[in-house]
Amino acid sequence: MSPFSNAFRSAEELLEPETFYPLRAFVCDQCKLVQVQDFAAPEQHFHEQYAYLSSFTPSWVAHARQFVEMATQRFALGATSFVVEVASNDGYLLQFVKAKGIPCLGIEPAANCAAAAREKFGIESLVDFFNPNTAKQMLETHGQADLIVADNVMAHVPRLNDFLSAFALALKPDGVASFEFPHLLELMRHNQFDTIYHEHYSYLSYHAIAPLLDRHCLYAFDVERLTTHGGSLRLFVARKRARWPISDTIQALEAEEKRAGLHILDPYLAFAGQVAATKRKLQSLLNSLKERGATIAGYGAPAKGNTLLNYCGLGTDIIDFTVDRSPVKQGRYLPGSLIPILPVAAVRERRPDYLLILPWNLKSEIVEQMHFIADWGGKFIVPIPEPAILD
Known about the structure:
The protein is of the alpha/beta class. It has two domains: about 240 residues, 3-Layer(aba) Sandwich (Rossmann fold), CATH 3.40.50; about 100 residues, 3-Layer(aba) Sandwich (Rossmann fold), CATH 3.40.50.720. Helices cover about 35% and strands about 20% of the residues. The radius of gyration is 21 Å and the shape is globular.
């Protein structure tokens, strides 16, 4: 049972009842698509004041810059091209497209994120979800796109068929869509159960996506392996009969997933046992530290951290506070665990003995930023893939 992972609480809301929902992941025994049981429409997750702003994560901004440099060269984008980003957030990626003089449009359902993109970078932003109606609206005002970027958005879409059909409408005949998403195979290999939360409707493998693309006259012609989010895929997708030949990387990905058994049920059914074992190890580690009188704080207030804390039953009896760079989250409380979120400066002020890194996928960046905790003997803890203290 878990509240919605981005339903951060204000001080006033602490006196009000909090709603918890079952958090259950299911696998289709035919197509092997993994989905959570959903209890809310996307509008309830991506409301006017969405808490996550991409620009506050330097490594993610650098990742976006590198992608734009690569895509501009590979797909010969220029002043006569048109680039769209779906779920464009606060303009963290399109700022680099605009800086190159390439016309662009952000499509972002959260009004505060779209407003930030306009104010920070002057990015034209349409406040809406991407679907066939939005695609038709875009065609009327801007025409078809040379490149549509959809980074870490497919998992947030409850109606995948509706979503993918919009790309078939919005792309030029030789246009390219770039989809990034955490790879289900890596999630299972490395016990990344905390990335399962209500806001993520689907957990994706190429095995499950390929038939969906085919259904909408799309195909993947290349794939890149990424280290982001614990191991992601970047699929390059085009309309059928486009000029892009299929790379050997696609066949290699298919073979790897088959060797791992993603086409049969056994690996999915075994995953629950791995998750429970990781939970017990983390509880044991933190409890033993508290028994010795240690103080423990968290770093970050990511959605994945709220799954971890609620599933493991960790609250203010174990973790005194957490810190986050985003002012949108500071002064609020984590859903479920009700751990207070403070500015990053609180770490230096309160000098905790241990810092639990909740966005473990940013471990290197965080350890570098917070290296000064060693001045008082402080150490870092990572919970995933195995709970461990970093020396």
